[in-house]
């Protein structure tokens, strides 16, 4: 049985915890305030979930989701994530994170920043451009007409394949944006950000993105 570590228990992290548990994964979830504050969430998710520290979630996960504010990525444990695939849900909100010159100047992307912090991990963009509430309600079986699509991006083909499988399990088609350097196309203020779109519409929105 695959275990998913989730570092971050906000709206996205909580929705993914429920979604993974509902699909038969074991979930180990952490936040910045300590596992003792996650009792209600763990009880809600069910018996497949347990609370832990970020270090423990990183160690336990066969795959790990990082879903913390961008300003907190330097606190993500590095060593226990070595060799693992890390799903990055992050977006840059300067109002929350403070201004980051390299992002303001379009010299990097949020996922590239996480990859730099985790040099021995494989970072892949996932679930960053869908409202949290839609993660559990917006999916549909494969082959459904007008099925919603989500984008992913990674420097690893294997990581893209993993997220493609996960998206399908959650009920979404996948569009591969390409390497992490192109992941800006699906971030905040771009046409593909937090709108419902099928595969063709997502491909068009990605092409319309401007930096």
From TrEMBL:
Assigned keywords, A-Z: Oxidoreductase
Pfam families, sorted: F420_oxidored
Pyrroline-5-carboxylate reductase catalytic N-terminal domain boundaries: 3-92
Keyword Oxidoreductase: yes
InterPro entries: NAD(P)-bd_dom_sf, P5C_Rdtase_cat_N, STEAP_metalloreductase
Superkingdom, natural source: Bacteria
Gene3D superfamilies for the chain: NAD(P)-binding Rossmann-like Domain (3.40.50.720)
Keyword field contains Oxidoreductase: yes
Alphabetized PANTHER family for the sequence: DUDULIN-RELATED
Protein name: NAD(P)-binding domain-containing protein
Source organism per UniProt: Microbacterium galbum
